[in-house]
């Protein structure tokens, strides 16, 4: 229950909490005490990073990019060659005859039209079960085309920031919930799926399949804003899709697990994370127990798993107990 409550709190924009010493498990307090006695020198920490870099191949990032590109290309191939394997777009589709509907899009349609059709229910249930098993926000990092181009744009932002050409501006994460409520109310009051009109996920998906349109100008403006002003702003502070799938992922068996025993609290994982608040547990003194599952706002992108020099972060499937 603690995991569910904390995940919901973070999804709603709450700040991670620093636990009091008496709230932490005894085993955790003992390990923190041992670490204070044997702190790594800066040289030793750099050596650990260098050793990791020599063996790390960014395997999860490569797998994720390959999966994301393959899923979106499957739509393109099915349309151009009329093989009827995967029809439609990410917002609504059919896979070998099975209806599939993006959960947030389905909600917008139901609210706007005040009517629910059977195919929409079937598609919603199918997608709900799929992402319940795979991890909710896994959709964001493993399927959403905007996530990929925004990730590439982020590299440019970081390079410009390193050159001190731009500076990253952050916003209060609670604005994401305000946007969520706003889009819900707009659909309900106007009878129009306003969010779907401006959603870069839907725009890019349709552009890939059916050809580019004027709406791509909006996507370009979003990317420019993220490159020159606020890193990953759309995904972090606006997009309601992430909230929807974050709730779905509350009960998912696929999670990223943090083990604090060997962690040097170097912070490399938080630097690469799109939602670094879920990795607050990796800060010295923040872990409640030796093993902690990252909150459901985690996109399961695997960047933290790839970059961690001490193998303290890993994908797990609850109930199986083995690393993926």
TrEMBL record:
InterPro entries recorded: 4Fe4S_Fe-S-bd (IPR017896), 4Fe4S_Fe_S_CS (IPR017900), Electron_Trans/Redox (IPR051684), NapH_MauN (IPR011886)
GO cellular component, one term: plasma membrane
Superkingdom as given in the UniProt entry: Bacteria
Presence of keyword Phosphoprotein: no
GO molecular function, one term: 4 iron, 4 sulfur cluster binding
Keywords: 4Fe-4S, Electron transport, Iron, Iron-sulfur, Membrane, Metal-binding, Repeat, Transmembrane, Transmembrane helix, Transport
A Pfam family this chain is assigned to: Fer4
Limits of the 4Fe-4S ferredoxin-type domain: 286-318
Regions that span the bilayer: 65-81, 116-134, 177-195, 207-229
Family annotation (PANTHER family): FERREDOXIN-TYPE PROTEIN NAPH
Listed name of the protein: NapH/MauN family ferredoxin-type protein
């Amino acid at each position: 229950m603690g995991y569910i409550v904390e995940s919901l709190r973070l999804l709603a924009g709450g700040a991670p909490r620093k636990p009091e010493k008496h709230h932490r498990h005894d085993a955790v307090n003992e390990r923190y005490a041992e670490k204070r006695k044997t702190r790594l020198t800066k040289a030793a920490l750099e050596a650990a990073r260098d050793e990791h870099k020599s063996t790390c191949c960014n395997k999860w990032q490569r797998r994720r990019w390959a999966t994301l590109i393959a899923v979106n290309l499957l739509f393109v191939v099915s349309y151009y060659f009329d093989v009827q394997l995967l029809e439609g777009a990410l917002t609504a589709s059919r896979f070998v005859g099975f209806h599939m509907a993006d959960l947030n899009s389905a909600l917008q349609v139901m609210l706007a039209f005040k009517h629910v059709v059977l195919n929409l229910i079937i598609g919603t249930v199918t997608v709900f079960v799929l992402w319940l098993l795979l991890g909710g926000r896994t959709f964001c990092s493993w399927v959403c085309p905007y996530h990929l181009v925004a990730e590439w744009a982020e590299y440019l932002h970081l390079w410009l920031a390193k050159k001190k050409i731009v500076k990253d501006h952050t916003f209060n994460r609670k604005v994401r919930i305000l946007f969520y409520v706003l889009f819900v109310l707009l659909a309900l009051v106007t009878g129009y799926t306003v969010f779907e009109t401006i959603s870069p996920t839907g725009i890019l998906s349709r552009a890939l399949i059916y050809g580019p349109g004027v709406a791509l100008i909006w996507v370009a403006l979003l990317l420019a804003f993220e490159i020159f002003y606020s890193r990953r702003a759309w995904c972090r502070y606006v997009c309601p899709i992430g909230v929807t799938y974050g709730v779905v992922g509350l009960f998912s068996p696929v999670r990223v697990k943090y083990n604090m025993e060997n962690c040097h609290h170097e912070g490399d994982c938080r630097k690469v994370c799109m939602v670094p608040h879920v990795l607050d547990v990796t800060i010295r003194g923040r872990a409640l127990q030796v093993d902690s599952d990252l909150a459901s706002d985690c996109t399961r992108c695997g960047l933290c798993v790839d970059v961690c020099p001490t193998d303290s972060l890993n994908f797990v499937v609850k109930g199986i107990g083995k690393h993926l």
